Amino acid sequence: MSTALPPSHEALTVPEVMAALRLSRFKVYDLIRSKQLQSFTIGRARRVPADALRIYIQNQLGDND
Question: What sequence ranges are listed for the domain Helix-turn-helix (predicted)?
């Protein structure tokens, strides 16, 4: 599994988010449940918009100032 994501990805899978943030599956779903990380489903497939991941990271960086 590659940790580098092609810039063309608009919607990321949970494993891709796990790799990007180096977090467990449980923690990624916890962020989704707590509405800290936006996501959507298509059928049973959960996806995280790439922009939502960028916003989450920016928010975390802003909280540390």
Answer: 12-60
pTM confidence score: 0.81
Tokens of 56: 């989450």
Dihedrals φ, ψ of 23, to 5°? -120, 165
Residue 27 dihedral angles phi and psi, to the nearest 5°:
-65, -40
**Integer Cα distance of 8 and 27 in angstroms:** 25
Instruction: Show me where the domains of the chain are located.
Output: 11-63
Tens of pLDDT, residues 27-56: 999 999 999 999 999 999 999 999 999 999
